Every structure is written in structure tokens, then in C-alpha cells.
């Protein structure tokens, strides 16, 4: 899990010199950019932050943070925009939310996460302990895939936690799920509850949770913890902060999609 100092440093690396008004040692569980506005000297961000306080309890607050913006950032994307596309060729988008089968969903997620990691310099590696494995400069990325956020997904996360005890903390471990699972029998509310129940376990065991967008395989949302590799961490911090906006759009479009089906 990132600390307040990690978040401040990441902002600074992007040319945004703001600081969260919290002790630097506090752990940050989630951060969302709710609003931005230009100021005379730079940029102001309204941030929704979930963190662990000095009592070890989860808390959440809204903070409006202002800071300078350096010239190199002024020509780059604004923080609320979608994550920059991969450097390599983009994967084609899907035209429907649903999956024809569990096998179809698993193949889609495997292609999406493989494409993302390959773009960041990882190569496929042989491994019998996880469903997918990639390697970059001696560091491995162990990945399991789950079509639903359910008990079976938790078992796959536990398998990754056990693998971490064997392989060590220098590698990365992640569970990958589809972003929206209603066509697979899991409602968005059930998905949310599964995350709330298990995020502490995932964070404690350094197992990341990634959700592949149902329409765009080039967009993978990052939750719970972020990888050590800098470029990947930036990518998942950006997509993770955009999840609530994407979720709201999905909910808003649900009625329209149902009408289309009825017709």
C-alpha cells in the first residue's frame, strides 16, 4: 500500500507540486481526483482520500490541495483524463459488455494484462504456480484470473499470497477480474462488497487487484496496492483514480442498455 509520501512523490514526478495534509507515514488506500481548477501559480485539486490513521483505522476525507505546476506538465494530459495509451499497438475494442462464456472472458483478460505488461517491458515466463507469469530484469509478475468476485476468486488470491511466501517480496502478485460482472452473475453491488470485505487481506498480503474494462482491453483499473515498477505504478494510479467516474457512467447507462435489450 502506498504511503502519503509515495503519493506526494508521484505528484511531484508528474510536475504537480502539491502535498496531502496528512503525516507522510500514513498509508493511502485510495485517492480520487474529484475536481481540478487552474490557479494563478498552478493547479488546485479536490481529492477524496481513504487512508489508515494513527489508530490503525480506515478514514476518509476531502482535501483541496494547491500547488505549482511546472512547464513540462502543462503540455501533458490533465490528471482526470484517461490513462495514456500503451506505447505499442492498441488492442481492438469490444462492442458489447457481455461475454459469451467464461472461457471468452478469461481469454479477454489474459490478452489485456499480457498486452499491458509486454508494453512495460515484461516477457512471458514459464510458471506452474500461477495462471500467467511474466518477467522483467529478474522480477516476476505472478497473475491469476477470476471471472467473478466470489469465493473462488478469494481462493485464487490466497494461492497468490501463499506463493508470495515461497517466492519472496521482490516479485509482484495480482488477481485480475472483469470490471463489470453482471452478465456473469455478479451484480455491481456484490462486486463492491467483495472488495470491501477482502481489500484488507489483499493489501496485507501484497496481492493487487486489477479489473479489465469490459469494452476497452487497453484499460485496466488498479485497486488495493500498486506495483513497484514506476511506469506501471503511474498507470495503475491513474486508472484506479478514474474508477468511480467509470462506475457512475456504467450505472447511468444501465437503464438504456436494458431498454435496448427489450426492444
How many individual helices? 7
Give the CATH superfamily of the largest domain: af2093 domain
Strand order of the largest sheet: 6-7-8-9-10-11
N-to-C SSE series? EHEEEEHHEEEHEHEEHH
Number of domains: 2
CATH architecture of the largest domain: 3-Layer(aba) Sandwich
Q: Percent range for helical residues? A: 25-40%
The name CATH uses for the topology of the largest domain is Rossmann fold
| Mean pLDDT over the full residue set | 85
Whole-angstrom Rg = 19 Å
Index terms:
single chain, 263 residues, alpha+beta, Rossmann fold, 2 domains, 6-stranded mixed sheet, 5-stranded antiparallel sheet, 11 strands
Question: Care to describe what's here?
Answer:
The chain is an alpha+beta fold. The chain folds into two domains: 2-74, no CATH class; 102-262, Rossmann fold (3-Layer(aba) Sandwich). 37% of the residues lie in helices and 26% in strands. It has helices spanning 4-13, 71-74, 102-119, 151-167, 188-204, 230-241, 243-262; strands at residues 2-3, 16-17, 27-38, 42-52, 58-69, 123-124, 132-136, 139-145, 172-178, 208-212, 220-223. The strands form two sheets. The protein has a six-stranded mixed sheet, sandwiched between helices. The protein has a five-stranded antiparallel sheet with strand order 1-3-4-5-2, sandwiched between helices. It is globular and about 55 Å long. Mean pLDDT is 85; it is low at 74-82.
